[in-house]
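Late entry, written up from scratch paper. The run itself happened at the end of the previous shift, but nothing got recorded in the book at the time, so transcribing now.
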Amino acid sequence: MINKISQPPKFLIDRYKKWKSGQYLKNEEQLRKLASSGQRPSTMVISCCDSRIHATSIFGADEGEFFIHRNIANLVPPYSPDGENHGTSSAIEYAIKELRVKHLIILGHKDCGGIKYGYNMHSSSLNINYEFINKWLSILLPAYNKIQKNVSEQEQINHLEQESIKASINNLFSFPFIKKAINENNLLIHGLIHDIGSGNLKFLNPVTENFENL
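Output as recorded:
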């Protein structure tokens, strides 16, 4: 059905031409070097699909620095080599086994629509029109089971945003090649949560197991 698709909209074409004549020319030598020598990123970032989250902007990263994988609610599923399609797991495997990244960051954010729906899905209502989202957000159940239930709904959702990152980190440790890389001091895992409105960034302190301001 190729004949049913269309060319990019004008605003994207205009932005591309502006980038090609400006930013690209400024960095042409570096980009040509990256193209010929391949990528060697130091860090993998697993972030949300949310259009407001831009890891390269938050950390001021250039091309070639970050290997980025996005999914709904920045989740990591448990290790499950069952032969099914596993986009997130395959991205993690490539980052660790082939790119040999030194840092793996789970980057969550405040006011996440995926987390909010996951909360509603596990607490009250399921949208039967979702063919894929419900299955994906079932990954949240262990995190949902850990949140306080005797507080307001918003507080529960805020708590779930944090617990989901902890759950994803625990799932990372279920991957044998992740544990091997960590045990051999070849990999560090980090949990971060970004507040879009304030710009604040919190990190998961491994000692207190709480998120604290950077």
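The chain has ten helices and six strands.
(Scratch paper discarded after transcription.)
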